[in-house]
Amino acid sequence: MKNWTYRLVASLLIGSWASVPLLSADAIPGIGPKGEIRKLHGELQFTEGPTQDDHGNLYFSDIPANRIYKVDAAGVLSVFLEPSNHTNGLMYNRGRLLACEMDGRLVAINVASKDTKVLAAQYNGQRFNAPNDLVVDREGGVYFTDPHFRAPMPLPQEVVAVYYAAADGRVTRLIDDLKAPNGVILSPDEKTLYVVPTLQKQMMAYPVVSPGKLGVGKVLCELQQPEGKDNTGGDGLTIDTNGNLYITSNLGIQIYDPHGKLLGILSFPEQPANCVFGGPDNRTLFVTARTSLYAVAMEAEGHVFPGKME
C-alpha cells in the first residue's frame, strides 16, 4: 500500500452515524484526515451536490428520488424540496441555494421561502441538456457544466459544454471541446477555473481573463486509474483555502495541489460523487457517495465562495 493512500474495508457494513477507523497510514501533512470517517445517513438512492449554509445546515441532492435533503446542525435528516426537478450540483450563496436542475435549468432557491428564481433556462433558443455542477464568482455570475447525463436525446444543445450565466442574465458558452464536463470550481483567488470531465483522465484548468471570459486551457493533472482501466475521469470536487483540489473518482477522493501534484487519495466504502467542506470551523469534509452521506474531520480548511459582494 502506498503511503499516500487510505483504504477502508469496503465490505464492512456501516449503520447510520457509525464510525469507521482509517487504516494505519500517515496523514497528508496540512490536509489530514485527522479523525474517523462517519456514515451520517444511508439507504438513499444517488446522492450528489452537498453544500452548507451560514447556520450549519447541510443540503444535498438525491437525483433519482427527485429531492433535495437537509441535514440540520443536530444531524437530523429531512426533505427540503420535492420535487426538485432532479437537482444535481448545489451551492449556497447569501440565503439562496444555487442549483443545477438536470431537467434543464439553472435556478436559485430561497432557503427560507423555497421560492425559485430561474437564472438560465435556454441557450440559442433551446433548453440546456442537463445542468450538472456549478460555482458562483464574486460578480454573482455562475459557471456551470451541461453534459449529457440524464439529458433527452438528441441533445437539445447538440454539444456538451460549460457556460457562464452573468448576474444580468446573459449566458455565454465557454467550453465545448470536452467529452463530458462534469465538476467545476474556481481557485480561491478566482483566477483559474477547474473543470473535471468524466470521460477522460485529464483534469483541466483555464485562466479567467475576466468574469465569464476564459483563456486557453491546459491539463492540470491526470487522475490515477483503477487497476485494469484507463481514461476514467472525475465527478465532483471541492477546494481548500490553499487551493488544493479534492476530486471524486473511481478510486475515492484524489487530492491535488494547485500545480497538479498528487497529494493523496481518500477511499470510502462507496464511490464518492461529490464533496464539500463544512462544519463549525469549515474543516469537516462531507461526501456524497452513492446511497449515503459521509463526513470526516480534516486539518485543511475549506474555501468559501463569497459570491457577489454587497
Structure characterization notes:
The protein is an all-beta fold and 310 residues long. The protein has one domain: Neuraminidase, CATH 2.120.10.30. Helix content is 0%, strand content 45%. It contains no helices and 29 strands. The strands form 7 sheets. It has a 5-stranded mixed β-sheet with strand order 1-26-25-24-23, with no helix packed on it. The chain has a 5-stranded antiparallel β-sheet with strand order 2-3-29-28-27, with no helix packed on it. The protein is globular, with a radius of gyration of 18 Å. The chain starts with a strand and ends in a 13-residue tail after the last strand. The N terminus is likely disordered.
Fold topology:
Layout: E1 5-6, E2 18-20, E3 37-41, E4 47-52, E5 58-62, E6 67-71, E7 77-81, E8 87-93, E9 96-101, E10 105-110, E11 116-120, E12 122-123, E13 126-127, E14 134-136, E15 142-146, E16 161-165, E17 171-175, E18 181-186, E19 192-197, E20 202-210, E21 213-214, E22 218-222, E23 237-239, E24 245-249, E25 252-256, E26 262-266, E27 274-278, E28 284-289, E29 292-297
Parallel strand pairs: 1-26
Antiparallel strand pairs: 2-3, 3-29, 4-5, 5-6, 6-7, 8-9, 9-10, 10-11, 12-13, 14-15, 15-16, 16-17, 18-19, 19-20, 20-21, 20-22, 23-24, 24-25, 25-26, 27-28, 28-29
What is this entry, summarized?
By secondary structure, this protein is mainly beta. It has no helices and 29 strands.
